[in-house]
Amino acid sequence: MIDLNTIWFILIAVLIIGYSILDGFDLGVGIIHLFTKDEHEKRININAIGPVWDGNEVWLLTAGGALFAAFPVVYATVFSAFYLALMILLTALILRAVSFEFRGKIVSDTYKKIWDYAFGIGSLLIALLLSVAYGNILKGIPINESRIYSGSFFSLLNPYALIIGLTGVSLFIMHGAIYMTMKSEGAQLQRMIKWATGSWMTFIVLYIIATFFTFFYSGYLFEGMTKNYLFWILFILLLLSLFYIPIGLKSQKYFLSFLSSSITIAAAFGISAVSLYPRLVPSSIDLNFSLTAYNASSSQYTLNTMLIIALIGMPIVIAYTIFVYRVFKGKVIISKDSY
Amino acid sequence: MDALLLARLQFALTVGFHFIFPPLSIGLAWLLVIIEAIGWKRNDESYIMLGNFFGKILGLIFAMGVATGVVMEFQFGTNWAEYSKFVGDIFGAPLAAEGIFAFFLESTFLGLYIFGRNKVSKGVHWFSILMVAVGATISAFWILVANSWQQTPAGYVIRNGRAELVDFWAAVFNPSTLPRFFHTFTASLISGAFLMMGISAYLIIKNKELEAAKKSFRLALIFGLIVSVLEVFPFGHEHGRQVARTQPEKFAALQGLYTTQSGAPIALFAVPFDNPPELKAPIEIPGLLSWLAFGDINAKIKGINEFPREEIPPLFLTFVSYHNMVLLGMYFIFITALGTYFLWKKKIWDKKKLLKIYIWSIPLPVIACQLGWIAAEVGRQPWIVYKLLKTSEAASITVSAGEILFSIILFGIIYLLLFALFLYVLINKIKHGPEPINPKEATL
Fold it and tell me: Is the peptide bond before B272 cis (omega within 30 degrees of 0)?
């Protein structure tokens, strides 16, 4: 029988994966937007994610709320430790959120350009900061016996975390480009395929480098992995989905490519979560000081209550999310309701 | 400046700024539910046009609410880590429930509502604005559950140095949840009504889409009158009675009752002083407070003098913000009743000055919301969780004053810019007015 703490460890991972898959492509599209020159193509970018980005971002909010509810000590320790990084992340989230609404409202090229940058750089910062933060979690952060963090903002910007950061960014760019293959046509579509293949290669190279570095920085993550069947399932899924992406793109099966890219994200994150378990935040001072699913959790009563809430709520959420995505499926057509 | 004060300032700034938008979007969403229903059922072009017009305004306000709301979900952890550790077992649950039951609903269906008009059937389109309104309301509910638990904690025990949940429903429906929810929800409806009323009055004065503008004005005016009355009685009254019972020192501070007395008066006007507690130049109605709070003009009500000095809230701010909120509440009833009278007499459309007053009244309900919130939160001090945890023990230990100062400046600049742009874009949208629908599209 799986205990409640483990279930919540899995649910938090699922929420983060849901966020990475759904808002991941918004972020990727935003980064690509920085390099989009044509005004019509820019509008295709924005309107491709316009109706859905808001709902996608809720996955992050809910992950935050669920972390607070299930593992309050992690929520409190990590968020106060990453203070400045989080403040910059919040700024980026704010600017991205309003950029769509503000961009088209005033007829001025400079004004539009400002919001293009807000959208693009905002997306890049969000993708980078979240990935760098995750890199730091994998590496472990300096928390002592009494769960007090003793690092600084700059100690978060270490080489290992930056490599994980770039790996994450390349993954989001790939995901965004593949999403856009479903939404764009003609020359833009061809460019998106190039973006997708380019970032696909970059991601694979960075993922291998990151894995290599992980051996040195936090070798304990590999302990017992060869005997863990879950690890092997995820690893095979990762290989298969990565392998399929260029094939799918070549044979113009864009939806299947997008599905593969989503599985890639889920598998890559899943593997790291499996190796972290039961630790949520390893301590780089002494692994025994780590925050785990057991020593940092809420009471069994709360975990149980929250599980009931999640089991009632999430299936409904997933059902209407699928419904809305189906309404907006297919290529983007600019109309008078568009941004 | 010390880190605690800065952390409090930052929280006040970020919540205060965020709280401008949700009341407007909740109120506007419910009015749009009515407008879209009429447009759909009667296939009335001017209502469809109004739906389009106010729908876009809702989109803008909603985006501001989302953008500034993200900060809230993280700020408890970043700035109030000790608080988060103490209450996490209870406080996180309503926040997570809000995400699952409300945020997803409103955000997902808002996209469908704004971009899906011609992609789904009219019934589904109406359903999408209904879900936005329902979602926004549920969202308000869970946030008020969390905040009310800070006011009147219930359903917990203190164990392992923290508050642990033992009865979920007792915590959710703690003594102040329902009074505060109805009070705040109705305030949101007033905010939405005044927004729609003011914008419609502008369109009428400028003679833009007159026929449609008169319809939205009439709807918002009558709706506004009903909710303004309900806000005071029963909801404001009930909330006051609840505070009198559950948080007597807050009640005394709100009312300016500094010495215990039977037959306590209502202070209509006064200038409060903190040290020593004193009301100067008061205009009072004797016995009324006792009667309102306990149904007996002779009832004895505890004054500030009954409580330990270190456990009473700042008196000036609590009294002044509460009384100005009440004053505004009375104004809302008066101004909507006046309009309804002239509407009934069929003279309203010629009252240009009155119509202008409605335009300038747009921000007043939002200001009343801010004042009410200040009274509620300052009145709870020095506690962050009433009688359980002091605000001074709740801030993050590892975050320095410099870091908080940096983030206050960062948010301050961004919020200022955003607010200026928001007003600019909003005013532009209003000046542009509703877009006439060509008959071809209306039948789609």
Answer: no
Give the closest residue to B209 by CA, choosing from B104, B89, B53: B53
Instruction: Count CB-CB contacts under 10 A for residue B273.
Output: 14
Beta-sheet pairing, B389-390 with B383-385: antiparallel
Please count the residue pairs, one from chain A and one from chain B, whose beta carbons lie less than 8 angstroms apart: 231
B111 closest CB neighbour out of A55, A97, A105: A55
Provide the pLDDT for residue B441.
Answer: 47
CB contact under 8 A, A149 and B91: no
pLDDT at A1: 67
For residue range B166-188, list pLDDT tens digits in order: 999 999 999 999 999 999 999 99
Task: Output the pLDDT for position B117.
Answer: 84
**Side-chain-side CA neighbours of residue B62 (13 Å):** 29
- Strands A291-292 and A279-281: what pairing? antiparallel
Is residue A153 within 8 Å of A84, Cβ to Cβ?
yes
Cα angle, residue A70 at apex, residues A68 and A71 outer, rounded to 5°: 70
Closest CA to A191 of A42, A5, A3: A42
Instruction: Name the helix (H) or strand (E) containing B414.
Output: helix B401-432
Partners of residue B99 in chain A, C-beta under 8 Å: 58, 61-62, 64-66
Distance of alpha carbon A225 from alpha carbon A45, whole angstroms:
40
Its ipTM equals 0.87
Two structure tokens written together for B289: 């407070």
The span from the CA of B146 to the CA of A46, in Å, is 35
| Beta-carbon separation of B63 and A101 below 8 A | yes
pTM for the full model?
0.91
Distance CA B6, CA B79 (A): 10
Q: How far apart are CA A326 and CA B108, in angstroms?
A: 12
Residue A157 has pLDDT above 80, yes or no: yes
Cα–Cα distance, A219 to A268 (Å, whole number) = 17
- SS3 call for B270: strand
Angle in degrees, 0-180, between the axes of helices B3-18 and B364-378, rounded to the nearest 10:
150
Question: A317–B104: do the CB atoms touch at under 8 Å?
Answer: yes
**Rounded to an integer, what distance in angstroms lies between the CA atom of residue A268 and that of residue A170?**
13
Can you tell me whether residue B284 is helix, strand or coil?
strand
Residue A109 has which token pair?
Answer: 């090229």
**Residue B401 pLDDT exceeds 60:** yes
C-alpha to C-alpha distance for B14 and B11, rounded to whole angstroms: 5
Other beta carbons within 10 Å of A277 = 16
Q: Which tokens in the block code for residue A154?
A: 């700059």
**Do B338 and B327 form a contact (C-beta atoms < 8 A)?**
no
Kindly report, residue by residue over B39-74, the tens digit of the pLDDT. 999 988 899 999 999 999 999 999 899 889 888 888
CA distance A92 to B10: 18
Backbone φ, ψ for residue A225 (5° rounding): -65, -35
Interface check B420 vs A, CB under 8 A:
no
User: Which residues on adjacent β-strands are paired with residue A131?
Assistant: none
A 67-86 residues inside an 8 A Cβ radius of B: 67-70, 72-73, 75-84, 86
Q: Is A106 on the interface with B (CB under 8 A)?
A: yes
Nearest to B116 by CA among A204, A335, A190: A335
Q: Which amino acid is at A77?
A: T
Q: Which residues of A touch B112 (CB under 8 A)?
A: 51, 324, 327
Helix pair angle (B122-151, B81-98), 10° resolution: 150
CA A208 to chain centroid, in Å, comes to 19
Measured between beta carbons, which residues in chain B are less than 8 angstroms from residue A314?
100
Nearest CA to A266 out of A20, A59, A5, A67 is that of A20
State what percent of residues in chain A have pLDDT above 70.
99
